[in-house]
């Protein structure tokens, strides 16, 4: 079993001799990790042995029950909301950045097709719409038919009695809103991630015009928000300018998160924004962003 903790990285296994002795072997790549584990959580651990020929250079054994108790203590003492920040506090940013690389590799479990969970087949699929001629329609045609039916329903409401229900230009606004959310292809402009979740600036192109908004799992990303931003955060609206999209993104420390995806057409603008923020003292991981962009930062 692998354990990545604020005090070190360990591989715990049962070797042949452990079974008879009632012990477990704790292995590590850094001597200091085992020393910290022994000092703070596992005083019953035996002497640390070193072998340059082994996969893990350092190892020691400890009674199985004491290893179990030490693991429980590590869990009981969790009082932090972000694991990598706690690692940085205790072991430095170099170790924290290394763990971020591990996070990035394991992120493929969530995105790579070969790891996707098999979905159960459904007995029915979506809905249908019956046209005036008793013809069943589906897919995109169905969506348009439902939208048209909704517009006709709005039109049937007497205007003087329902001014709020049927405002001026409501049909154009309704079609525009639904078109943006349903019918236009959504593109990921830039996606970043961290221990708490994912955050993306997405865009839709209508003709030659782009519209943008930030999409995220607010519950998962709440640890990155300031206190004022966490109060009743609504879904972000579509905005019409690049600057307005960035303003939504700047509610989060996106430059400090791990870049997962960057749209080809926006590589240069993203690089310019990163360089601009870095000059203002904002933390930017140049190595990770440089690889994601396929471009070099200009000092």
Q: Could you give the count of β-strands?
A: 11
Number of domains: 3
Helix percentage: 40-55%
Low-confidence stretches: 226-233
H/E element sequence: EEHEHEEHHHHEEHHEEEHHEHH
Biggest sheet: strands, sense, closure? Answer: 5 strands, antiparallel
Which strand order spans the largest sheet, edge to edge or round the barrel? Answer: 1-2-3-5-4
Average predicted confidence as pLDDT: 79
Strand content: 15-25%
Radius of gyration: 27 Å
Specify the structural class.
Answer: alpha+beta
| Shape field | elongated
Q: Give the number of helices.
A: 12
Provide a compact summary of the structure:
With 299 residues, this protein is α+β, with helices and mostly antiparallel strands.
If you had to describe this structure to a student in words, what would you say it looks like?
The chain is of the alpha+beta class and 299 residues long. It has three domains: 2-79, no CATH class; 129-183; 186-293, no CATH class. It is 40% helix and 20% strand. It has helices spanning 16-21, 31-40, 64-76, 83-91, 93-106, 108-111, 139-156, 170-183, 218-221, 242-249, 267-279, 286-293, and strands at 2-5, 8-13, 23-28, 49-50, 58-63, 129-130, 136-137, 186-194, 197-206, 209-216, 258-262. The strands form three sheets. A five-stranded antiparallel sheet has the order 1-2-3-5-4. The chain has a four-stranded antiparallel sheet with strand order 10-9-8-11, with helices on both faces. A hairpin with a 5-residue loop joins strand 6 (129-130) and strand 7 (136-137). The longest helix has 18 residues, at 139-156. The radius of gyration is 27 Å and the shape is elongated. The two termini are 43 Å apart. Mean pLDDT is 79; it is low at 226-233.
